[in-house]
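Re-run with default settings, no changes from the original entry. Doing this only to confirm the output is reproducible before filing.
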Amino acid sequence: MRIGELASRTGVSIRSLRYYEEQGLLASTRSTSGQRHYTDDEAERVAFIQRLYAAGLSSRTIAELLPCVDSPSAENSDAALERMAQERDRLSAHIADLVRTRDALDGLMATNRAHREQLRVPLAG
């Protein structure tokens, strides 16, 4: 299938498919006129790549994980597992930072509410 059909079948833009190919995430064969051609397996691969992007992984990280899919072996599996653990740790640290930021905002909001409440109370005098 050509790139337009792959885009239609997967719901991914032609531009994204070209990007995936540039990043080494997706492969195509070329016709004599230079048109890209893909197999049905590539449609499944695009769906897999989309799930990894939705999980917050970068194209670089996805490229590091794909050898486990393309050439399953103990070595590739171990490397992929280590990379996924690193990503999980990165996400956990980011979540912790977000929680601290949310808690700081909660504190600021409480201070603001208390200040606004003081403005409503008339001073005795």
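The longest helix spans residues 74-120. The mean pLDDT is 92.
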